[in-house]
Design goal:
The chain is of the alpha/beta class and about 300 residues long. The chain has 2 domains: about 110 residues, Rossmann fold; about 180 residues, Rossmann fold. Helices cover about 35% and strands about 15% of the residues. The chain contains 13 helices and 12 strands. The strands form 2 sheets. The protein has a 7-stranded parallel sheet, sandwiched between helices. The protein has a 5-stranded parallel sheet with strand order 2-1-3-4-5. Strand 6, helix 7 and strand 7 form a beta-alpha-beta unit. Bound molecules: (2R)-2,3-dihydroxypropanoic acid.
């Protein structure tokens, strides 16, 4: 009998840790839910009341990513099921990718590469392929959690000035250490030359960057999103990239993944990545291991390591 089911293949270390409890892998997890006490899952697995009803013995939903908007936490709470996630271990990889997108947007990499591949590079040209400097520019960070702070730390050596808006304001000490200035949301929108999103998706943050916010952004500014697609109204973003004020964008996440707004696909001034923020071998292994350790703790009668509220 399997006390644990996983919707995705686990690394060897996690299998070793969990095998003694009985483990059913991705091929049979749905069938094994009725007996399962632990579910390891991903952001592509909707964990709702209907699924939970098929798993009456479940004690923990170990979500092997950091975001948990796909898990009905109310339904879990009502059934006494603990929900966990994997913070910290993916902070650096995701912040690295945000920096890559900031650089890509500012230097117009997708347009330059597309032009070269189309045979339009006929030799070095003084006024060709001009992007924007990062040095001296203002980076706005929406959501100053772990990843937002890691992006702020990376931006400083590039000479960027950092402003931020977040549900919770940092302490004066942390603001000074990061060289980050707190601003209200309107200030963030009005002053950011590069705006990078790092907030979780909640009913309150959905479409924070809507047509109105986009209209108020600086002419020639850039938007980068490595958080969740639905923070942005994608149709409005297409308009802002096509008609201004935005000069470019870097996106790793989309409003209706895996669908991409068709307008985005044709724009040369957007880098489009397939949700790979945490996709390094080391980081994904750490995420799976942390989810497995949460399961191990709960099934061994200890407290979960990373419970989410
Ligand atoms: C997460 O963890 O929520 C990411 O989107 C995948 O790394």
């Amino acid at each position: 009998m399997s006390r644990i089911v996983t919707t995705f293949p686990l690394p060897d270390g996690a299998i070793e840790l969990l095998r003694p409890f009985g483990l059913t892998g991705p091929d049979g997890w749905r069938g094994a839910l009725t007996e399962a006490e632990a579910l390891l899952c991903l952001l592509t697995d909707r964990v709702d009341a209907e699924l939970l009803d098929r798993a009456p013995r479940l004690r923990i939903v170990a979500n092997a990513v950091v975001g948990y908007e796909h898990v009905d936490r109310g339904a879990c709470r009502a059934r006494g099921i603990v929900v966990t996630n994997t913070p910290d271990v993916l902070t650096d990889a995701t912040a690295d990718l945000a920096m890559a997108l900031i650089l890509s947007a500012a230097r117009g990499l997708p347009g330059a590469e597309r032009s070269l591949r189309a045979g339009q590079f006929h030799g070095w040209g003084f006024w060709d392929y001009l992007g924007a400097d990062l040095n001296g520019k203002t980076l706005g960070i929406f959501g100053m959690g772990r990843i937002g702070r890691a992006v702020a730390r990376r931006a400083a050596p590039f000479g960027m000035r950092v402003i931020y808006h977040s549900r919770t304001r940092l302490s004066t000490h942390d603001e000074a250490a990061l060289g980050a200035e707190w601003v209200d949301f309107d200030g963030l929108i009005a002053r950011s030359e590069v705006l990078s999103l790092h907030a979780p998706l909640t009913p309150q943050t959905r479409h924070t960057i809507d047509a109105d916010a986009l209209r108020r952004m600086r002419p020639g500014s850039f938007l980068v999103n490595t958080a969740r697609g639905a923070l942005v109204d994608e149709a409005a973003l297409v308009d802002a990239l096509r008609d201004g004020p935005l000069a470019g964008a870097g996106l790793d996440v989309y409003e209706r993944e895996p669908e991409i707004h068709p307008g985005l696909l044709h724009l040369p001034n957007v880098t489009l990545l397939p949700h790979i923020g945490s996709a390094t071998r080391e980081t994904r292994t750490r995420m799976a291991m942390l989810a497995a350790r949460n399961v191990h703790a709960v099934l061994s009668g200890a407290s979960p390591l990373n419970p989410v509220p």
